[in-house]
Amino acid sequence: MEGTAVLERVTWRAAKVVAVHDETATARTLALAVRDWPGQVAGQHVDVRLTAPDGYSAVRSYSISSAPSSDGRIEITVERLPNGEVSPYLTQEVMVGDELELRGPIGGWFVWRRDQTEPIQLLAGGSGIVPLMAMIRSRRSAGSSAPFRLLYSVREPEKVFYRDELRTLSNQGDSVVITYAYTRVTPNDWPRPAGRVDASLIATSTWPSTAGPTIYVCGPTSFVEHATDLLIAGGHDREKIRTERFGATGERK
Amino acid sequence: MTIISRGFSGRRSGAEAKLPPGQYLTTDFPVLSAGPTPHIPLDRWEFTIDDGSNVLKRWDWKSFRELPSETITTDLHCVTRWSKLGTSWEGVPLDVLVADVKSDLPYAMFRSYGDYTTNLPLKDVMNKQAWIAFKYDGADLEPEHGGPARLLVPHLYLWKSAKWVKGMTLMPHDKPGFWENLGYHIYGDPWKEQRYSNE
Question: Does B196 sit within 8 Å of A14, measured CB to CB?
Fold first, then answer.
């Protein structure tokens, strides 16, 4: 067991929205300046609290997408849920200058630490890319040379988060090897037909078990269950696989 | 100091009155696990009770399912803030399992396939407060929800209801399990909002 002392101070802190950026038609990144932010480890999340004028409040958890920095700023990326209570506000209402409350960082299991030198395999399903992007960004900001691979399963090209940044990373040959799996619609001339991740894609695009990678899988439950079953069938030790699931059983996105 | 979020009104369902603080209602059944879902063949399944040195009781699937069980209808509260009301389960009460265990050790570490652990005071799993559940909504419990059998301790946050449970180790002192070691509360009462270790 590693990663103790995760939550030294989980007090609510004031945070100001300092920038917003739409990732897709339904997802937005918010940059937040947080008072007395203690810093985070890649993969951690925060609780965000919104309070109405009559005192009613709602709290949801969101993964941090930015690398740790010393300027007290973090970024979260929020996907709008069709019947959500908080995500429509954060993706449509909120403006630069608005204030909200958050606490964290939270979570000490689904994290990548800069002293990890082994190969890293990331598997993202849809907006499950968010905490994995924090790991990719942390790798760079830490000057790490740990070899990363990312398999990013996404419905269609328009649903890709961080598109330009990932393309730049791919082109730099910077030891972050990225493979996309489009489940519904592919770009033109894409070699692989649309479809979910399968055993052959796992075999050709991810680290073999002999490389000894630590594996992080994040996405909807159905994706995580499917992907981890394939990884274990491919010979990976379950102890090397860390997961973070969201959404309901059998949810179809 | 509370900050009012400009333009936020929220969506009140009227059901909040029944929910612990900071929870919201869901009708789905979300899944939260730290790793891959283990798939345990029933002919390899077992549940044991030990005291740290000796195995005191052991059941295989057949002998476990011959124990008296009961149906439970209860509300679930996950530390990730969803609550689900009126869920229906079938399971063996812990009272049945520990009935003739000779021990006065006051704490237990529950152990799962996949190496998950969680700690509980023994008094919290006695007196019809906890079950080893094997059916959900009338059907065999799905692996992703903890099948073939999971602990169900509905008066505490759901991480205490260990999925894929395979045994309990009785202990003289309380000791943190998996999430408790990672900063979650040692006890986890949702009505006191005991989410994290400093609350």
Answer: no
Question: Any idea where the domains of chain A sit in the sequence?
Answer: 13-106, 120-246
Chain A residues whose CB is inside 8 A of the B25 CB are none
Chain A CA closest to residue B199: A10
What pLDDT band is residue B24 in, cutting at 50, 70 and 90? confident
pTM, 2 dp: 0.88
Predicted confidence band of residue A4 (pLDDT cuts 50, 70, 90): very low
| Domains of chain B, CATH where assigned | 20-28+43-192 (3.90.420.10)
d(CA B97, CA B63): 11
Interface test with B, best of A60, A83, A85 (most B CBs within 10 A): A85
The interface pTM score, or ipTM, of the predicted complex is 0.81
**Six-digit token string for B185:** 């509360």
**Phi, psi (deg, nearest 5) at residue B16:** -60, -30
Q: Which fold has domain A120-246?
A: Rossmann fold (3.40.50)
The CATH code for residues A13-106 is: 2.40.30.10
Best mutation target, B5, B119, B179, to test chain A (most A CBs within 10 A): B5
Q: Residue B56: CB partners within 8 Å, gap ≥ 6?
A: B49, B50, B101, B102, B103, B170
User: Residue A1 has what pLDDT?
Assistant: 35
SS3 of residue A191 by DSSP: coil
Q: What secondary structure does DSSP assign to chain B, as a single string?
A: -----TT------SGGGGSPTT-EE-SS-B---SSPPP---GGG-EEEEE-SSSEEEEEEHHHHHTS--EEEEEEEE-TTSEEEEEEEEEEEEHHHHHTT------EEEEEETTS-EEEEEGGGTSSSS-EEEEEETTEEPPGGGTTT-EEE-TTS-GGGS-TTEEEEEEESS----HHHHTTB-SS--GGGT--BTT-
B34 and A14 within 8 Å at the Cβ level: the answer is no
